[in-house]
Amino acid sequence: MRVITFGTFDVLHIGHINILERSKALGNYLIVGVSSDELNFSKKKRFPVYSQDQRIKIIQSLKFVNEVFIEESLELKRHYLKTYSANILVMGDDWSSKFDEFKDICEVRYLERTPSISTTEIIEIVKKI
Ligand code: C2G
């Protein structure tokens, strides 16, 4: 089974590792769409701390990740799901119901987020040090 997931994965933390590990466990081939710097800027009005090349290299080096590509646009989900022949789309439950429209071409699963950690929180903590 080919599993696909998407994310920014900026300032990699245990919540990212947990969801990638659990995603892989749902199948045997894990594909990760890492959002581009431009996509982040358009969504959040700031660039990620780590550049897209760094984020891609980090995600590629994880043992449970098989393939990585750049997610250029949120509007291209269906295209990516088809291009990578995904059987299962996984996202954290902060995205609950947001991708249900793709249930016609693959299974859509929302996994529980790891509590009490996020990139934004890490940035705030580091700022205070
Ligand atoms: N995540 C998690 N637990 C946390 C933090 C994040 O399970 N404590 C999950 C999110 O739910 C998401 C993945 O880790 O599924 C990546 O999170 P982000 O890097 O914050 O990605 P996001 O900005 O949600 O980008 O097309 C969708 C976007 O590209 C998703």
UniProtKB/TrEMBL annotation:
<dbReference type="InterPro" id="IPR014729">
    <property type="entry name" value="Rossmann-like_a/b/a_fold"/>
</dbReference>
<keyword id="KW-0548">Nucleotidyltransferase</keyword>
<dbReference type="Pfam" id="PF01467">
    <property type="entry name" value="CTP_transf_like"/>
</dbReference>
<protein>
    <submittedName>
        <fullName>Glycerol-3-phosphate cytidylyltransferase</fullName>
    </submittedName>
</protein>
<keyword id="KW-0808">Transferase</keyword>
<dbReference type="GO" id="GO:0016779">
    <property type="term" value="F:nucleotidyltransferase activity"/>
</dbReference>
<feature type="domain" description="Cytidyltransferase-like">
    <location>
        <begin position="4"/>
        <end position="124"/>
    </location>
</feature>
<dbReference type="InterPro" id="IPR004821">
    <property type="entry name" value="Cyt_trans-like"/>
</dbReference>
<dbReference type="InterPro" id="IPR050385">
    <property type="entry name" value="Archaeal_FAD_synthase"/>
</dbReference>
